[in-house]
Inverse folding.
């Protein structure tokens, strides 16, 4: 046994769990190829645990990546939808369709993310920005544009929060149904 063998011996448990850095793994594998002693040791220590923990940790990583990708994807869709809502309701000023659409938006966003601040962001900011742009292009003063837009965004926000509360109730009811 030389010095490398002692190091490999120490690293084997981590190696078997797949916890070593890529470079270290390569180094251990290179040593195992050239050293029968350590190879025997590795096959012994590897047998009871098998390769399952390695595989499952890789699967978990893959799954997390997939989930993260999905969340990012839905986030983009939510932002896009909320901007479309904002533009539509500002263009159709007399329409009260936004009451329904923002309640639904709040409900869906809350059920999906379970975060009220996201509902607030999605309902308030697009309307606020869009309304300011719209008012300024209609030659309103900056002050009026900001106050008017804040009011408009706030009205939308109220309905989104109503949707949020509905979502909260839905979750509570479902929770109760599961525990009883
Ligand atoms: Zn060795």
């Amino acid at each position: 046994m030389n010095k490398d063998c002692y190091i490999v011996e120490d690293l084997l448990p981590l190696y078997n769990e797949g916890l070593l850095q890529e470079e270290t793994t390569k180094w251990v594998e290179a040593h195992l190829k050239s050293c029968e002693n350590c190879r025997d040791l590795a096959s012994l220590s590897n047998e009871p645990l098998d390769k399952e923990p390695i595989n499952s940790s890789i699967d978990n990583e893959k799954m997390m990546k997939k989930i993260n990708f999905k969340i990012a994807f839905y986030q983009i869709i939510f932002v896009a939808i909320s901007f479309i809502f904002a533009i539509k309701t500002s263009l159709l000023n007399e329409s009260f369709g936004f009451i329904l659409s923002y309640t639904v938006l709040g409900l869906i966003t809350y059920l999906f993310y379970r975060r009220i601040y996201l509902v607030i962001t999605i309902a308030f900011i697009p309307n606020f920005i869009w309304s300011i742009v719209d008012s300024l292009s209609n030659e309103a003063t900056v002050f009026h544009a900001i106050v008017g837009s804040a009011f408009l965004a706030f009205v939308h926000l109220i309905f989104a929060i109503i949707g949020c509360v509905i979502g909260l109730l839905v979750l509570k009811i479902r929770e109760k149904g599961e525990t009883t």
